[in-house]
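ok so I'm stuck.
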Amino acid sequence: MKITVVGTGYVGLVSGACFSEVGIEVVCVDVDQKKIDGLKKGVMPIYEPGLEEIVVRNYKSGRLQFTTSLSEAIKGSEAAFIAVGTPPGEDGSADLKYVLAVAKEIGEHMDDFCVITTKSTVPVGTAKKVKAAVDEALAKRKADIPFAVASNPEFLKEGAAVNDFLKPDRIVIGVEDERAEKIMKRLYKPFQLSSDRIIYMDIPSAEMTKYTANAMLATKISFMNDIANLCERVGANANMVRKGIGSDSRIGNKFIYPGVGYGGSCFPKDVKAIIRTAREFDYELKVLQAVEDVNEYQKSVLFEKVKNHFNGDLKGKTFAMWGLSFKPNTDDMRESPAIVIIDQLRAAGAEVKAYDPKAMHEAKEIYIGDKVTYANDAYDACVDADGLLLVTEWPEFRLPSWDAIGKLLKTKVVFDGRNIYDKQYLAEKGYQHYGIGI
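replied:
not stuck anymore, here's the structure
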């Protein structure tokens, strides 16, 4: 079985590599020649645990191929997955120009029945637009080639994407063609040998499922951050509150950890997009608008704690920052709270000395020149710093030597943006500790 995956970003590369891992012939397509050349040499464009090993192994076996030519890749493919970017427009809506451009090109070069499937996160109604683009391209060719469209949203967690794909908790497929359903069922059979986890539904429902899932998780995060901010004001401990509500099976203990806000490639973009979709249908998603508002506010909370501690005067001060990526086990800095915090510190006249195990190369693309100093390791970041900010909870930051750090910092103060440190223990070590909601 042969398939084509268009786009070698986070979703496309993980999907293509994992499909090839179970024996499917996969051709990954991207317009970026440099990226394609790098992949052929085993150079990953993203950091994702376990991905490099799978890519290299399957490329060497010939099951996984990389090319810039969609016209060649699509020949003989039973399914084509569109996994290109859908960046937010100025109004928050998802920009579908890349998705539709791919659909058009598929229509220009397909030679047999193919299930054209959106893997990118796209708003309701996209499948109809994809079908129209393919129909138009086929009409110009005067070619009568049957095809079907489908929606197969991804539910991959950055940092655990390979395992999520190989061992999915659910596979959502929106399809309205019997032949297409059979192909998708055969394609996903290797991933569900122990149990059937495919949920078939109509295409609009599948398109809506992805946005709704991300919006619900974002809601839990913003809700808990809102509660944490109130906890500080009333003298409650947000960590205790979290444990109290998390033990309720109706609520669960995931995505209720107070912090400095959510970021990444999905939650911010998808919340904006579903709000915009609702407005197009004359409906206001008031809860999700509040979710977004809380998240934007939350990204400033840690900076405000820093400013208040130093009585509003940060000029000439230097701060160590641990963590740049929006979460651990990824180098992704898209919409990362670290960006907002760095900009706020810089605007207040402070310097930033940052360290992240994987995202420093990404940060250097964002901050050109001398805006940020990059440390060699976590301890190097603390040398002569006026305080330490924990922004991303990488494992290596969990249990540092506070005695050693105390000798490096000018001021023994920690601004814990993820509540991973024990306030009482740090106090015993002579530190002032500021958390979120505690």
